[in-house]
Specification:
Layout lengths: L2 H54 L15 H4 L4 H6 L7 E3 L6 E3 L15 H16 L7 H24 L4 H18 L7 H12 L10 H20 L4 H16 L1 H4 L2
Antiparallel strand pairs: 1-2
Protein name: Peroxisomal membrane protein PEX16
Family: Belongs to the peroxin-16 family.
GO biological process, one term: peroxisome organization
């Protein structure tokens, strides 16, 4: 990736990290008008950055999060003795004669700070697999797929615009957003030869369609009572589950009112 593209991904990641804090902080300081103003500005900035990545840099299907979080355990370098013996493979592992279990040899045990519980082969395979995933270029998008990804990127702006036109209690913004999400996924489903990260992203978007059960006005009219009833039944009749479901029942109404939790 070029340096400008990396900067765009960095700014996009920063916006996704601070959007909920910005919404709640602005609502506390400037009220409801300030809250919706910062929501529109953040969604507009995210859409512009994503469209630049899509149309100018040909970044393909946009990932979430834009920058893959660093796995420090996998990034730890191998023990020096492991790297010396890597080519020969001697004294790194011991294979049990009867169990055929592979265990690390005591001679190649790393220091406590860099120790891991897998065999050297497993660690090398995971590191090589991660490097291969990171180095895979994005799948080229045709006109249909580019339109589909553009629909997904601009859907938050169209949803906000429809909220301003028809109001928050209208079904039209909810239906418009659902149609755009489903249309985008349907158009992208014809794309073949996706890499692993792109397939995972499409699966994530498909699972996120369940959020429409928690989005107003569907949640206010249909889902709220049923979800709270189910959580209450689990808390009362399933031992040990109440430690999770009771705080969730108290947290769900507050969570549902935060725009970036529901629609971001």
């Amino acid at each position: 990736q070029s340096l400008p593209q990396q900067k765009l991904l960095t700014w996009l990641s920063v916006l996704e990290c601070v959007e909920v804090f910005a919404e709640m902080g602005t609502a506390r300081v400037w009220g409801e008008m300030g809250r919706w103003t910062i929501i529109v500005l953040i969604q507009l900035a995210k859409a512009i950055l994503r469209l630049l990545l899509l149309l100018w840099y040909k970044a393909g299907i946009q990932m979430s999060p834009p920058i893959v979080p660093l796995n420090r355990e996998q990034q730890q370098p191998l023990h020096p003795q492991d790297t010396e013996d890597n080519s020969s493979g001697k004294d790194q592992t011991y294979v049990g004669r009867r169990s055929s279990r592979v265990v690390r040899s005591l001679k190649s045990t790393p220091s406590l700070q860099s120790r891991h519980w897998g065999s050297p082969q497993q660690r090398e395979e995971s590191q090589s697999r991660r490097a291969e995933d990171m180095n895979q270029p994005p799948t080229p998008l045709g006109l249909q797929e580019t339109i589909a990804e553009s629909l997904y990127i601009t859907r938050p702006l169209l949803h906000l615009l429809s909220l301003g036109v028809w109001g928050q209690r209208s079904w039209k913004p909810w239906l418009l957003s659902a149609v755009l999400d489903i249309s985008s996924l349907s158009l992208l489903s014809d794309l073949k030869d996706l890499n692993r990260r792109e397939r995972a992203e499409l699966k994530r978007r498909t699972v996120l369609l369940l959020y429409y059960l928690l989005r107003s006005p569907f949640y206010d009219r249909y889902s709220e009572g049923r979800i709270l009833l189910l959580l209450r039944l689990l808390a009362d009749y399933v031992p040990g589950v109440g430690f999770v479901t009771r705080p969730l029942m108290d947290y769900l109404p507050a969570w549902q009112k935060i725009y970036f939790y529901n629609w971001g």
